[in-house]
Design brief:
Non-ribosomal Peptide Synthetase Peptidyl Carrier Protein, Chain A, 10 strands, 32% helix
Length: 415
Amino acid sequence: MDKVHKPTMNWAATDLNKEWKRFKQHCEFTFKGPLATKSEVEKVNYMMTYIGDKGREVYGTFTWARAEGDRPAENETLNGVYAKFDAYVAPKKNTIRATVNFHRRKQLEGERFDDFVTDLRVLVKDCNYQEEDRMLRDSIVCNALHSKVKEKCIDLGDELTLDKAITIGQNYETSQESMKVIINKDEDAKIHEVRKRSNYKQRPKQYNKTSARNNKCTKCGYDNTHNKCPAKGKTCAVCHKLNHFAAVCRKKGTNPKGAHQVEEQYAETDSDTESQDEYQHLIDVINAIGKTSNSEWHETVIVDGEPVRIQIDTGAAASIMSYSWVKNKKLNHKLKPTSLKLQSYTSHALEVKGCITLPTTYKKCTVDIMYYVVKTDKIPILSGAASKQLQLIQRINSINDYPQLRKTTGTLPGK
């Protein structure tokens, strides 16, 4: 019996009648289970040990019928003791109040649908309704937590029964739990690309230096059967000229130390239109080659109140921050998980710890910038877009806007 949860009576309960019914039911299960072999008098005594000090005080106020012939004394039978306490809590039963409690009962956030229905069944007993099932059905329609459950119930109209309403609620809850499992699996999967569209054909093979040149596009390095070259309008991260990628740049061998590059890979979609949406892009961040040098492309900015020496990379599609820096700072912003995978130009995967949005200030300009946090000891990278937002760089569309640049001071080599 020591391992069995003993019944307890809460005499401070707001609804004393409901609390007594709960306590009485627990006692009945106990007397039919672990204490089934006990005598009637012993069961009464057990109950009086469970009922608490207040219950024993109330017990002392009752008047009991004495034993007569074969009939035992009233206080020696469970039914006799039950009847006295039933009568004691009965005056505290209020039908109007019970009705109000029933209609105010709503399914709580995080509460299981079956638990909600069970509590409704308990509350409706004290309302003295002639059609309890109909009232339970209506309460589910009005007070269920999820709007989808309410909508499906309303769609059935007069055909909706209590059983159908319960089934709808249970099925919706089950489907939501299944979706959580599926979503968690998707987040754990290894994703190496950022899709602009969900439906696409197989990605062409990446550029291979050993492949025949006549089968490769000289602008992007991929199979030249594509309808539109993805390098069109793009700026090379090596020479900073338009309409080709760094992977096929002829000046690639002269790339200065400390330079960063971004390569974009694509796959054709099912449509043959010339829209830029016809390509999906992979963000491939190139690690610094050799040691970082002090050059005009480095600048000190304020990141979340801390000065940081950062590399301005106009060709980078993402801003990068060192994980060790984030870990050692007491930041006001939390690191968020991300499914985005970054890799170097040499196809080496970068260990992405997550992403974080931090206020970044240069002079009087402050911008919230999203950094991808990577486990590396290289200097942080500020993407072209972020550099433009901070007014670190400016795009010149026409040299005519700057007359001072039109003055020639010499000639180019070979001219």
